[in-house]
């Protein structure tokens, strides 16, 4: 991968400009430089880091939590992610039950 502008990174990682700026403010990522037009550039490592931060946020982690795990050793990260999977599976089960209840209610309304 080559260096990308902020706009390109946002499109590639499906994140907003404000999100990347928030990551920078939190000290999670930084631009690798600027191009001749003054646009911020992000190297391959920064691009991958932004994608990983986005994944962690999609998993429901807050920026503070991401800061704590982004550079954690693999065994620590693995444990945290396994715990998150358990929580997500519990939430999925709860939502599935709720959907079933609502479907049953709808059936009585017909």
TrEMBL record:
<dbReference type="InterPro" id="IPR009061">
    <property type="entry name" value="DNA-bd_dom_put_sf"/>
</dbReference>
<dbReference type="InterPro" id="IPR000551">
    <property type="entry name" value="MerR-type_HTH_dom"/>
</dbReference>
<feature type="domain" description="HTH merR-type">
    <location>
        <begin position="3"/>
        <end position="72"/>
    </location>
</feature>
<dbReference type="Pfam" id="PF13411">
    <property type="entry name" value="MerR_1"/>
</dbReference>
<protein>
    <submittedName>
        <fullName>MerR family transcriptional regulator</fullName>
    </submittedName>
</protein>
<keyword id="KW-0238">DNA-binding</keyword>
<dbReference type="InterPro" id="IPR047057">
    <property type="entry name" value="MerR_fam"/>
</dbReference>
<keyword id="KW-0175">Coiled coil</keyword>
<feature type="coiled-coil region">
    <location>
        <begin position="78"/>
        <end position="108"/>
    </location>
</feature>
């Amino acid at each position: 991968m080559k260096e990308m502008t902020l706009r390109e990174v946002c499109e590639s990682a499906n994140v907003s400009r404000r999100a990347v700026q928030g990551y920078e403010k939190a000290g999670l990522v930084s631009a690798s430089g600027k191009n001749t037009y003054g646009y911020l550039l992000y190297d391959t490592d920064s691009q991958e880091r932004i994608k990983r931060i986005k994944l962690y946020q999609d998993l429901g982690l807050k920026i503070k939590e991401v800061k704590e795990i982004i550079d954690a050793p693999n065994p620590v990260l693995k444990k945290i992610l396994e715990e998150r999977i358990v929580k997500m599976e519990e939430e999925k089960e709860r939502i599935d039950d709720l959907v079933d209840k609502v479907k049953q209610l709808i059936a009585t309304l017909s």
